[in-house]
Amino acid sequence: MVDRVAVSNLALSIIGEDDQLVDPLDDTKAARTIAAVWDAVRDEVLRKHPWNFAIRRTMLTAVDGYAPVNDFTHLYTLPPDCLRVLDVAIGGTLTRDYAIEAQGLLSYGPGPVGLRYVSRVENAALWDSCFVRAFACRLAWQISERITGDLNRKAAIDRDYRLALAEAKAVDGRENPPEPAMDSSWITSRITGPSGIGEGSGW
Question: According to the lineage, what is the superkingdom (predicted)?
Answer without folding.
Answer: Bacteria
